[in-house]
Amino acid sequence: MQCPCGSSISFQQCCLLLINQDNNAQSPEQLMRSRYSAYATEAADYIYQTYAQASRALQTIADISAWAKETKWLKLTIHAASDHTKHNNQTAVSDGNKEHNLPTVCFSAYYQHQGEYFLMKETSRFVVEKGQWRYLEGEVSNNEALIAPKRNQACFCDSNKKFKQCCGR
């Protein structure tokens, strides 16, 4: 199975290694891709564990799990990602409530929820806690309902299949 994050490698060789905690994310983009794959595969524990401590207090595994089960994730597109690694993260500075120069990942995700299709665009911010990348917060700049393609049109997930044979099933 190809990885839900959209990489060209298998799920077992990509995000599953992070979700199973066999490897650690080496960049904000890699963490964001693994979180997307975790939503797609309903790995709520991993999603919860990859929140920054300040954000984790606002979440529950039950809520994350319910959202993941109700939502079918169809496609991820990365638009931009900060060039940060854990070793060059000195530019991420916190002064209480404000975060400056935090690494970001800007992405779009197509998903289906309660029979409707949506496109969400978000810019996510990340921090390093105890040597691990963590998702701090995201700013959703767009979350719009989409008109589904007609049955014989190409699917918007870029599978090269007709909609009726892909996400429209």
From TrEMBL:
Organism superkingdom: Bacteria
Segments forming domain YchJ-like middle NTF2-like: 27-138
Pfam families, sorted: SEC-C, YchJ_M-like
Gene3D superfamilies: 3.10.450.50
Protein name: SecC motif-containing protein
